[in-house]
């Protein structure tokens, strides 16, 4: 798995996510206190985002403070999961992503990242289920990420038909969130495995154009040598 795709699961969802305003239900002291904690939690979350690129440890502490004040701050839990995943602490990252999806069952970004964490722990079937759960939400802003990862795992399970469909669906998304050359390379492999040689040749040739001199083009060139002239 490419590290940039793994890291993208953190960057992209926040670009699409807008924190909603909390509705005031009343002026009871308990409600005011709860509202205050929630606002402080959001403040720490924003502080964590601001620190993420240049000071990961500071961001982690900010996300922790955010969750402590409001355990239902799903985005802060996502932030914790992201940093834990990058540190290789996959079981702990898994816990945070699961917690986030329990708060919001339509949190597709968290399901997609959870799938990658599960895959990296060798739990392929669980990862497939997580990616499919991410795609169950029709409002998911970057479904090609989940479809790409789902397609790769289905191919590893020898379900090349399912892999082909996942890759083809991912290619429809515009603008793309997965490098088109990489996506076309995996689709070309799926066509090859299914015996669709013409489609495979056309798709792999496209990779050569999209990624001239790159690693994807090299892989496509090697695969093209296996096809009949």
Q: What separation lies between the terminal Cα atoms? A: 31 Å
The total count of strands amounts to 0
What structural class results from the helix and strand content? mainly alpha
* The number of domains: 2
CATH class of the largest domain: Mainly Alpha
Estimate the mean pLDDT confidence.
Answer: 88
Largest sheet: none
CATH T-level topology of the largest domain: Serine Threonine Protein Phosphatase 5, Tetratricopeptide repeat
Helix and strand run: HHHHHHHHHHHH
- The CATH superfamily name of the largest domain is Tetratricopeptide repeat domain
Helical content (DSSP H or I, runs of 4+): over 70%
Task: Summarize the helices and strands and which ones pair or pack.
Blueprint: H1 3-16, H2 29-51, H3 56-69, H4 74-86, H5 90-103, H6 108-120, H7 124-135, H8 143-156, H9 160-171, H10 180-194, H11 197-210, H12 215-224
Helix pairs in contact: 1-4, 1-6, 2-3, 3-4, 4-5, 5-6, 6-7, 6-8, 7-8, 8-9, 9-10, 10-11, 10-12, 11-12
What does this molecule look like?
The chain is elongated, with a radius of gyration of 20 Å. The model is unreliable at 1-5 and 7-32 (pLDDT under 50). The chain has helices spanning 3-16, 29-51, 56-69, 74-86, 90-103, 108-120, 124-135, 143-156, 160-171, 180-194, 197-210, 215-224. With 229 residues, the protein is mostly helical.
Core attributes:
single chain; 229 residues; mainly alpha; Serine Threonine Protein Phosphatase 5, Tetratricopeptide repeat; 2 domains; 12 helices; 0% strand; elongated; disordered N terminus
Q: Could you provide a short overview of the structure?
A:
The protein is built from twelve helices and no strands. It is mostly helical and 229 residues long. It starts with a helix and ends in a 5-residue tail after the last helix.
């Amino acid at each position: 798995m490419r590290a940039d795709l793994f890291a993208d699961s953190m960057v992209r969802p926040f670009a699409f996510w807008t924190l909603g305003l909390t509705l005031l239900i009343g002026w009871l002291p308990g409600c005011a206190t709860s509202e205050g904690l929630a606002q402080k939690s959001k403040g720490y979350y924003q502080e964590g985002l601001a620190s993420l690129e240049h000071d990961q440890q500071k961001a982690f502490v900010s996300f922790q403070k955010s969750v402590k004040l409001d355990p239902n701050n799903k985005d802060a839990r996502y932030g914790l999961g992201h940093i834990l995943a990058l540190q290789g602490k996959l079981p702990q990252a898994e816990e945070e992503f699961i917690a986030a999806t329990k708060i919001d069952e339509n949190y597709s970004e968290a399901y997609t990242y959870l799938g990658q964490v599960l895959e990296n722990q060798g739990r392929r079937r669980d990862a497939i289920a997580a990616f499919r759960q991410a795609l169950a939400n029709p409002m998911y802003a970057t479904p090609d990420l989940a479809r790409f990862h789902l397609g790769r795992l289905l191919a590893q399970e020898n379900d090349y038909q399912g892999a082909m469909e996942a890759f083809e669906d991912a290619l429809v998304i515009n603008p793309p969130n997965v490098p088109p050359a990489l996506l076309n390379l995996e689709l070309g492999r799926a066509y090859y495995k299914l015996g669709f040689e013409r489609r495979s040749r056309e798709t792999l040739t496209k990779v050569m154009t999209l990624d001239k001199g790159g690693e994807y083009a090299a892989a496509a060139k090697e695969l093209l040598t296996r096809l009949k002239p």
